[in-house]
Design a protein that fits this description.
This protein has about 180 residues and is mainly α. About 50% of the residues lie in helices and about 5% in strands. α1 runs antiparallel to α2 and α4 packs across α6. The model has no long low-confidence stretch (mean pLDDT about 85).
Amino acid sequence: MPRSRRLAPDVVRARLTVLADRLHKRDEDADFAEAVDAILAPRGWELLKPAAQSTGEPNLALWMNKSIKEAIYAKAQAAGENVRDVVEEGFRKFLAGEFTPEKPVRTVRGSQVEKDNLNVRASAALCGQVTKRCPAATKELGWEVTPGRVAMSWLYAEYGISDDDQRGVTVPDIDAD
């Protein structure tokens, strides 16, 4: 839909300036005047953009086969679970010594398996504790243990993801168990 000539940028700026001047004349409208002035300032339009929604928790990007990601989401939804809560449960079990992560299985070299990130915003405090525990676990297990690998290992165990699924030889069953 074409924009009206009456709403050209220079006309809008002029009208907002007049509005701000009128609002400044009334003490009870000083807050509104200040808001209009802020919008008219250089890059003031950025104030109109929606605020980014963030939990403030760090993102844990888990790189995996797309079919596994989809299966995890489907199984979590079917069970009424939140993937974040499941990962945090795995972190707590790992820290308590009740869970030992499995060494990751790599996709078969040369396969055309599509990969994607499963993004989880787990508790910063739990991630920090797991990060501190990882060097000792690496020495114990003989392979590099990271918070992401702990999370993936726990998710795979919880949702029945097999080694062949991880290799890309099979596709995980999405039906809830």
